[in-house]
């Protein structure tokens, strides 16, 4: 007798996977932040990334299960009149994202970290919280495009409607690309894929592609740092690889020295000043060094299981908006994971793409947890068949 998994079970399994990946992130952010010459100041615990990540982890769990209780259909656009747009959370998120993306570019408000102005610092009493508007912009489009596409129905095939959606997406991408080329390219790709799946005519995509090509080419040639990264990726033996390619080389060294079983949790040495961004974009290299090939396979398997559960939710959903929204969430998380692994293993040029659930940082962790909560809501509110 075959046992069929209910949608509630699928939702709970998805939550377990997400929490496991986030817990793994806490462990390795703590490991990668290891200090051998500094004593912790209990009164300033929030200033240490490892302790911040624990706070982010606990808050993310609350966000995940909190949003799972809310009906995802409140994000849908029910009518094309102005009142429906004004009251829709997805529309407001896009509007707020654009405002924040403009504000973060103003030196007085935006905080520059690693030569990029991508963060807003929000003071909360004795501590300050950093917020990355580009992450909110990414997820706002993942919610907004399905809402508009399903509301329009067959009108999505209208060229003028397609151009209007591309203008909104293009505005957000243009604001992001000024300081963050990798995220801008990722947002543009995800948005176009969701639009295509939503039913837009394939030949419509021929219009924005030349514009995107010109914008991204100008973004690359106008930045010496981005040119150096491209040169280092194309020719790893060049002089550019000694500077811009340093991080990738150290990442490959960390991965290769992990071998089959790794050096043991906490036993890696790349984190001691050899590998920059060891708690964020390149945390996968630390996992490979300390847990080896077995640990790497375990992490990849978790993401594959997340993809499988996501596909099940998409296939079972009998609501067009829920189906398209679930597709956007699963696509965004899994493709971001693939891109991060591609960068860490030098299959792709270096970009500022975090590993979902695992990399240090509150903004991406909160928003990714929120997205999984919405995915759970979709699964729970789909009738079992």
Overview of the structural elements:
The protein is mainly α. It has 13 helices and three strands. The chain is globular. The relative contact order is 0.16.
Descriptors:
three-stranded antiparallel β-sheet, single chain, mainly alpha, globular, 385 residues
- Low-pLDDT parts are none
Helical coverage, percent range: 55-70%
How many domains would you count in the coordinates? Answer: 1
Q: What do the pLDDT scores average to?
A: 87
* Sheet of most strands: 3 strands, antiparallel
Write down the overall geometry: globular
Name the structural class: mainly alpha
CA radius of gyration is 21 Å
Distance between the termini: 17 Å
Largest sheet strand order: 1-2-3
**Number of helical stretches of at least 4 residues:** 13
Q: Order of SSEs, N→C?
A: HHHHEEEHHHHHHHHH
What's the count of strands? 3
Q: What is the percentage of strand-forming residues?
A: under 5%
Summarize the structure.
The protein is mainly alpha-helical and 385 residues long. It has one domain.
Which helices and strands appear, and what pairs or packs with what?
Layout: H1 7-32, H2 49-68, H3 82-86, H4 89-103, E1 110-113, E2 116-124, E3 127-131, H5 133-152, H6 159-177, H7 181-198, H8 208-221, H9 224-234, H10 246-258, H11 283-316, H12 320-344, H13 362-380
Antiparallel strand pairs: 1-2, 2-3
Helix pairs in contact: 1-2, 1-11, 1-13, 2-13, 4-5, 4-6, 5-6, 5-7, 5-12, 5-13, 6-7, 6-8, 7-12, 10-11, 11-12, 12-13
């Amino acid at each position: 007798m075959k046992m069929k998994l209910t949608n509630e079970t699928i939702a709970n399994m998805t939550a377990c996977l997400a929490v496991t990946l986030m817990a793994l992130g806490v462990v390795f952010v703590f490991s990668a932040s290891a200090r051998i010459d500094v004593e912790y100041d209990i009164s300033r615990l929030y200033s240490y990334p490892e302790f911040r990540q624990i706070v982010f982890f606990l808050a993310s769990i609350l966000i995940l299960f909190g949003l799972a209780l809310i009906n995802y259909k409140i994000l849908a656009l029910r009518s094309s009149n102005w009142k429906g747009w004004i009251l829709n959370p997805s529309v407001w998120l896009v509007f707020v994202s654009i405002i924040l993306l403009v504000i973060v570019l103003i030196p007085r408000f935006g905080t520059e970290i690693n030569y990029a102005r991508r963060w807003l610092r929000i003071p909360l009493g004795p501590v300050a919280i950093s917020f990355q508007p580009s992450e909110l912009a990414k997820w706002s489009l993942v919610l907004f495009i399905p809402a508009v596409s399903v509301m329009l129905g067959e009108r999505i095939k209208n060229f003028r409607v397609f151009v209007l959606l591309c203008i909104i997406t293009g505005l957000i991408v243009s604001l992001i690309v000024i300081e963050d080329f990798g995220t801008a390219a990722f947002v543009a790709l995800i948005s176009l894929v969701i639009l295509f799946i939503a039913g837009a005519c394939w030949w419509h995509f021929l219009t924005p592609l030349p514009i995107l090509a010109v914008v991204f080419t100008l973004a690359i040639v106008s930045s010496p740092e981005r040119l150096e990264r491209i040169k280092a990726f194309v020719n790893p033996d060049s002089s550019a690889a000694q500077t811009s390619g340093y991080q990738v080389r150290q990442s490959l060294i960390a991965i290769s020295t992990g071998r089959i079983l790794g050096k043991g949790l906490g036993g890696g040495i790349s984190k001691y000043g050899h590998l920059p961004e060891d708690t964020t974009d390149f945390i996968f290299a630390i996992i490979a060094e300390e847990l080896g090939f077995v640990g790497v396979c375990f992490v990849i398997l978790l993401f594959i299981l997340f993809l499988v559960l996501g596909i099940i939710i998409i296939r079972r959903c009998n609501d067009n908006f829920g189906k398209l929204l679930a597709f956007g969430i699963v696509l965004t998380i899994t493709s971001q994971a693939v891109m991060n692994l591609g960068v860490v293993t030098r299959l792709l040029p270096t970009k500022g793409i975090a590993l979902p659930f695992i990399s240090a940082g509150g903004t991406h962790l909160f928003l990714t947890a929120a997205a999984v909560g919405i995915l759970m809501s979709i699964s729970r509110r789909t009738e079992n068949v």
